[in-house]
Fold each of these.
Amino acid sequence: MSDKDTGSSFGIGFIVGAAIGLAIGFLYAPRPGEETRELLREKAEEVKEKATEVVDKVKETAAEAKEKAVEVAERVKETTAEAREKAQEKLKEVKGQTK
């Protein structure tokens, strides 16, 4: 796995852990049930929004990585073709000199 994968995994784990911690904290807090449920709904919505942001960022990063990989592959292909042409030219030169 790359470092970016580890960072994304950590981010998602952190958000989920924070949500669980908040939920447990709210459940043990001395508040009326309705108030506690409302707080849980609000926090769940916040976690959902954060998770959506993380997913969007991961998708964006993956798209950028794919684009860069395609560019690098194209450059490698071009460089290989140029090297092959030069090698063929040198081979022709060497063959011409040995005749």
Note: The radius of gyration is 28 Å.
Amino acid sequence: MVPATLDVKGTKILAKSLFKELRGSGYSPNQILSLSTELIDLVTQDLKGDESVPVTGEPPRDWRAAL
């Protein structure tokens, strides 16, 4: 379970772990950058209150295929 708030150190560790996992799974730096951009867009929409962005539930099973 992810805590409601992460400190700066925890956030950096999580980001580094995710990056290493994606690179280890064969994703290119450009694919990871594209994913990061999409995440920023989703967070931005969520902060703006865009109700079309799902905030709960599981991602599609084939979310990696989109990268």
Note: The chain has a mean pLDDT of 81.
